[in-house]
Automatic annotation (TrEMBL):
Name the UniProt record assigns to this protein: 6-deoxyerythronolide-B synthase
SMART domains recorded: PKS_AT
Domain Malonyl-CoA:ACP transacylase (MAT): from-to ranges: 95-409
UniProt key word Electron transport: no
Record organism: Kibdelosporangium persicum
This protein's UniProt keywords: Acyltransferase, Transferase
InterPro entries assigned: Ac_transferase_dom_sf, Acyl_transferase_dom, Acyl_Trfase/lysoPLipase, Malonyl_transacylase_ACP-bd, PKS_NRPS_Biosynth_Enz
Pfam families per record: Acyl_transf_1
SUPFAM superfamilies linked to this entry: FabD/lysophospholipase-like (SSF52151), Probable ACP-binding domain of malonyl-CoA ACP transacylase (SSF55048)
Length: 439
C-alpha cells in the first residue's frame, strides 16, 4: 500500500545568506547572523530558511556549513564570504566535467538529503539496470569523502589521489559520472537555476546533449553504457598532461602520440599507445619539462579510439533519436557552439571520441558570447580548475570553492557565491518542502 506523506528534506549542509544596501554595511549584517547563530545554535536550519527569504540588498554574503561549529568559525573569520561589488543579474552556464574525479559514494550525501537528486539517480540507475549495469549502491553507499585538487598548475598535472575503486574502470566510471552530473543538474534546476548555455568536457558533453534535448535520457544512458563497454575492449593506452602550450608541443609528439585536449594556455593533454606515451614521458622528464600521467587506461580523444568510430556511428544511427539542441552548448570538436547539423549527425559522436577536446576555444566562446556566471556540476572541481586559467575568466564568473569540502557543502558554496554575484534562486523551491510517495 502506498501512503502519500509531506516531507521536508534535511539538507546535508545549510546555506546562510545576508545582504546590505552598501558595502560598508555588509560586515555588520554578517555579525548579526553570527549573533543569532551563537544565541540559538539549535536553530541553524530555521535561521537559514528565514535569511533566504529576504528582502535582499545589492551587496551580498553567503556561507554553506554542515554544522553550527564550522558556521560560527567561518562567520567570525569572514574571509571570502562577501562580494566586493553589487549583485548584477547575469545568465548561468553549467560546466559538466569528464571522468577523473569520481569515487565510490560520490552521490551519498545528496542522495540521502535531496529528494530531487535522489529521484534523478534512481531514474538513471533503473535504465542502466535493464542494460546490465548496476551502479546504484556504488554511487550512494556512504564512504569517506576525498579532498579536491587545487587549481594551480602543480595540482592540474599531478595524479589525483582519489580512491576510485571499481569506478576507475571505463565501463563503470563513465556511466557513474553521467548519472551524478545529470542528477546535479536536475537538482539545481529544481531550485530555479536554469542554464543559458553549457559546456561539457569529454563525457560531460553527453550530459549537456541530454539536458539540451539532443538525446533522451534513456537513449543517452544506453549510449554511454554501450560506448564505455566497447572502449574497455580496445588496446590499453595512456594519457599525459604536459606543461607546454599547444603550439610548442608538436615537435615532441612523434608518430603515435596525439593532442587529446587543450586544457589551459600553458598545459596540453596528449595520449596514445602505452609504449609511445611512456617514451614521451621519459624524454620530457630528461628535458626538465613538467608532465604527469593522467588516470586513464586508454588514449581518449586520439587515433587510439578510431577502431570504434564506424561501429559507434552505426550504433547511434540505429538506436538514438537525435534532435537539435534547445539549450546552446559548446562542442568539444569545434570549440564553438554546436550546430543542429552536428548534433543530429551520428558521425559527430564518433568524431567527439577521436578528436582533440578544444576546451580553451570552447571556454572562450562561452565567456565571449554569453558572459555568464558558471557552476560546475560533477564529483569534483577539475573542469573549474581548467576554466579559471582561461584569460577571460575571473572570480565573478567562476568563484573558487575551498578544496576538501563534501559534495553537498561544495555545491551550496558554489550556489551561494553565484548568488552573491547576482544569480537569482527560487528559495521557496530550494527548501524542498514537497510531497513524497513512500511504500
Amino acid at each position: 500500500m502506498t501512503e502519500s506523506l509531506i516531507r521536508t528534506a534535511t539538507h546535508a549542509a545549510e546555506l546562510l545568506v545576508w545582504s546590505a544596501a552598501t558595502a560598508d554595511a555588509l560586515p555588520m549584517a554578517r555579525q548579526a547572523v553570527l549573533a543569532r547563530l551563537e544565541a540559538s545554535p539549535d536553530s541553524l536550519p530555521e535561521l537559514a530558511r528565514e535569511l533566504r527569504q529576504g528582502p535582499h540588498g545589492a551587496y551580498r554574503g553567503a556561507l554553506a556549513c554542515a554544522d553550527v561549529e564550522s558556521g560560527v568559525a567561518a562567520l567570525r573569520r569572514g574571509r571570502n564570504l562577501e562580494g566586493k561589488h553589487p549583485a548584477a543579474r547575469r545568465p548561468v552556464a553549467f560546466l559538466l566535467s569528464g571522468v577523473g574525479d569520481q569515487f565510490p559514494g560520490m552521490a551519498a550525501d545528496l542522495y540521502e538529503s535531496e529528494p530531487v537528486f535522489r529521484d534523478a539517480v534512481d531514474s538513471c540507475c533503473a535504465v542502466l539496470e535493464t542494460e546490465g549495469c548496476d551502479l546504484r549502491e556504488l554511487l550512494v553507499r556512504p564512504v569517506q569523502q576525498p579532498g579536491s585538487p587545487g587549481n594551480d598548475l602543480r595540482s592540474m598535472v599531478r595524479a589525483r589521489q582519489v580512491p576510485q575503486g571499481p569506478l576507475a574502470t571505463t565501463r563503470l566510471g563513465q556511466p557513474g559520472v553521467f548519472v551524478v552530473e545529470y542528477a546535479l543538474a536536475q537538482l539545481v534546476r529544481g531550485w530555479g537555476v536554469e542554464p543559458a548555455a553549457m559546456i561539457g568536457y569529454s563525457l560531460g558533453e553527453y550530459v549537456a546533449a541530454c539536458l539540451a534535448g539532443v538525446m533522451s535520457l534513456p537513449d543517452a544512458l544506453r549510449l554511454v553504457w554501450w560506448r564505455a563497454q566497447r572502449i574497455e575492449r580496445l588496446p590499453p593506452g595512456g594519457m599525459l598532461a604536459v606543461a607546454l602550450p599547444r603550439d610548442e608541443i608538436g615537435p615532441w609528439l612523434g608518430a603515435d602520440v596525439d593532442v587529446a585536449a587543450v586544457t589551459s594556455p600553458f598545459q596540453t593533454v596528449v595520449g596514445g599507445p602505452v609504449a609511445a606515451v611512456t617514451g614521451l614521458e621519459r624524454r620530457l622528464a630528461d628535458a626538465g619539462v613538467a608532465c604527469q600521467r593522467v588516470g586513464a587506461h586508454h588514449g581518449f580523444h586520439t587515433r587510439s579510439m578510431e577502431p570504434l568510430g564506424t561501429e559507434l556511428t552505426e550504433w547511434v544511427r540505429a538506436n538514438v533519436r537525435l534532435a537539435g539542441p534547445r539549450i546552446p552548448y559548446v562542442s568539444n570538436v569545434t570549440g564553438t557552439w554546436i550546430t543542429d547539423a552536428e548534433a543530429t549527425d551520428p558521425a559527430y559522436w564518433a568524431q567527439h571520441l577521436t578528436r582533440t577536446v578544444e576546451l580553451m576555444s570552447g571556454l572562450g566562446a562561452l565567456w565571449r558570447d554569453v558572459d555568464p556566471v558558471a557552476i560546475e556540476l560533477g564529483p569534483g572541481d577539475g573542469l573549474s580548475s581548467y576554466a579559471r586559467h582561461h584569460p577571460a575568466c575571473d572570480r565573478i564568473r567562476l568563484p573558487r570553492v575551498q578544496p576538501g569540502l563534501a559534495p553537498a557543502t561544495g555545491l551550496l558554496t558554489s550556489l551561494g557565491r553565484l548568488w552573491v554575484a547576482g544569480l537569482e534562486i527560487d528559495w521557496t523551491r530550494f527548501t524542498n518542502d514537497c510531497p513524497r510517495s513512500d511504500s
